[in-house]
Design a protein that fits this description.
The longest helix has 22 residues. By secondary structure, the protein is of the alpha+beta class. The strands form three sheets. A five-stranded antiparallel β-sheet has the order 1-2-5-8-9. A two-stranded antiparallel ribbon has the order 3-4. The chain contains three helices and nine strands, in the order αβββββββββαα. The two termini are about 20 Å apart. The protein has a single domain, classed as Alpha-Beta Complex (Peptide Deformylase).
Length: about 180
């Protein structure tokens, strides 16, 4: 079932998601619904906060680039209680966007590689080496789980330039959708 998205201005996007203690049928259904929601909105990642649930879960489906520059496709994946370890000292600036902040994108510097540790829907803990765009996506989703939006990481003059656009987005999406 497609779930309603939460938009910039919604307080749930600023809250810290709680760890999942047990993988229940409800968690499995949430993951399935989040994948459907992400795909329906043409996203590459979606955190539980973005659909109003404060649990440490995100889903992702994207092509990813390995260190040799080869692009690989992957099926949607579920990440429960994810943790980033070993961020590289090397970083790269790329444009980011977010389903919860429509019509806006901005440049952001993030580490080039990370190791992501998480649990899958079967309860298996795993570690995954991530590079480039995939690493960026996972850091973006974990930021959501920690109540941080990518625009929070944009500083200085560029952030000041974004403020009128953010107010406009808040008025257009959040206030309109919060009355439903």
């Amino acid at each position: 079932m497609k779930l309603p998205l939460r938009y910039y201005g919604d307080p749930v996007l600023r809250k810290i998601a709680q760890p999942i203690e047990e993988i229940t049928d409800e968690i499995r259904q949430l993951a399935t619904d989040m994948i459907e929601t992400m795909e329906a909105n043409k996203g590459i990642g979606l955190a539980a906060n973005q659909v109003g649930r404060l649990v440490r879960l995100f889903v992702s489906s994207m092509d990813y680039e390995d260190e040799e520059g080869e692009v690989h496709s992957q099926e949607p994946e579920v990440y429960i209680n994810p943790v980033i370890t070993k961020p590289s000292g090397a970083s790269i600036e790329r444009t980011e966007a977010c389903l919860s902040i429509p019509e806006l994108s901005g440049p952001l510097t993030r580490p080039l590689t990370i190791t992501l540790e998480a649990t899958d829907l079967e309860g298996n803990r795993f570690a995954k080496e991530c590079y480039g765009y995939e690493a960026r996506c996972f850091m973006h989703e974990i930021d959501h789980l920690n109540g941080t939006l990518y625009v929070d990481r944009i500083k200085g003059k560029r952030r000041k330039e974004l403020e009128p656009l953010l107010r406009k987005i808040k008025k257009k999406y959040y206030k309109t959708n919060s009355r439903k």
